[in-house]
Structure formats: structure tokens, C-alpha cells
Amino acid sequence: MSVKFYSIGSLIAAAALSCGPAQAAPLFGFLSAPTQNQPQYAPTQQNDATDDAQLDPRLQRQIVNYASNEAPGTVIIDTPHTVLYFVLGNGQAIRYGIGVGREGFTWAGVKQVARKAEWPDWIPPQEMIERQPYLPRFVAGGPGNPLGARAMYLGGTVYRIHGTNDPTTIGKHVSSGCIRLTNDDVTDLYNRVQVGAKVIVLPQAAPVHTAQAQPASSSYAPVTQSRAQLTWSAIR
Fold it and tell me: Which of 118, 61, 120, 58 is CA-nearest to residue 86?
């Protein structure tokens, strides 16, 4: 069996635009039961500082007032404002800062979470390989993987909501269409989102979805996730 090795440079170059279809997924994997029996809508505790502390306050995870007719558990991605809302109901949501597709790679629509994965493998799609032939063909899941700690796969697309080891890309238009959060944030969201959840992606030109969301509680403490050991840099 031959084993391919890739230089550190080729791996570091891959990260920010990663967004390809997963491989070797079970044919009916999207029918598997979620790992938790009930949705987790209540905030959870942390003991340590997170990558959120490095972000603009607008992008830090927090509960906000958010008027929506969508059911609790719905994910709304506000592309132009680089934030994601997890609807709690009763006029509130958890807001997360995100990175979105760069110019020419944004998209919009209504999808569902088809499946979820912890520390997912990354296999660049053929389209990305053609644009960047130096990319590795496979990166095993782990702290050095550009998909980060968690991934939620959107049915009928090649896109995912996933983590990143480079929190400096949050709030920016940098990816090939995937939605990225810090590893701390994606772990928190992963623990709340259920397989089959509705995901609404607003177009780049969309106005603000509702009146400006305001912090609803200063007592919200996010989930803790250990920081990644490697940082992946953005490429254009």
C-alpha cells in the first residue's frame, strides 16, 4: 500500500476555502438518530475563555432578542451580516459570528441538516482540486483539519456548517460556500442542532432579517472546546 505525504505548506494553504462533499458517508446516514434525544435549547456552561474573546463583540456568541416565525431549532444564516441565528423561540435566538463564501461563492436557499460528524475528514471536491492542484486529496479528522471540530452537512448540497482553526476568518467572506464558526462555537451549535433541522441561508443582497438583534442576557456562558493545535491560513 502506498502512502502519500504532503508538505506542511500544502496543508496550511488549504484551509479557508475548504468546502467539498464528504466521502464514504453511509447511504442512508441522514436517517440515523441524533446523538441526543432532545434538542438543547438552554445555554450551557463553560469554565475557560474561548476564541470568542478574540472576536468583535458583534460576532461573539450570545442570546439576543430575535423575532421570527420559525420553529425553535431552526438555523438562519444571515450571509451579508456574517452571523448565524439558532432560533430558541419566544422572540429569542443564539447568535454566532460566522465566515461565509467569498465573492462569487455565496448562495441562498432552504435546506436541512442531513447528518452530523465530529472531527470530520476533509476531501477537497474536484472543482477545488482543479483550482488548486497542490491541495492534499485527503486530510484525516483532527485538530489540523480545515473542517475543525464539528460539521453539519446540508442535504442536497456540497456545503457544510463547520468549524475552523483560524478564528480571524470569522466575520469575513473567505470560503468556497461553506459556513464556518470557531471550534468553540461550532461545538456549541452542534450540540443543539438536530439531524433534519431546517437551515435558511439568506442571500448576500438580503436586508436584515429582523430588527437589529439586541443582547438578551449577560449570563450566557458558552460551551468549552479545547483549542486546535494547528492554524490554517486563508488562500484566495
Answer: 61
